[in-house]
Specification:
- The chain is built from 3 helices and no strands.
- It is mainly alpha-helical.
- It has one domain.
- The longest helix is centred in the first third of the chain and has 20 residues.
């Protein structure tokens, strides 16, 4: 659950930065948010969650 919150927070911060800098239009942000909601409720959601979790595990296991 902590991974989900941190990814959502990161994406929210990035979207806010893009909106403020003018590189992301409000309509584009709304479309992206709607796409996220539709993906979350689709049959591919468990596979996406598993893939993101695996990628986070790989990234966290890398030592600098």
């Amino acid at each position: 659950m902590a991974l989900t919150i941190s990814v959502v927070l990161l994406l929210l911060i990035l979207a806010a930065i893009f909106l403020r800098s003018g590189k992301l239009k409000l309509s584009h942000a709304i479309v992206c948010a709607l796409l996220g909601f539709y993906l979350a409720s689709s049959s591919i959601a468990p596979d996406l969650r598993h893939s993101l979790s695996g990628a986070a595990d790989v990234i966290s296991s890398v030592r600098p």
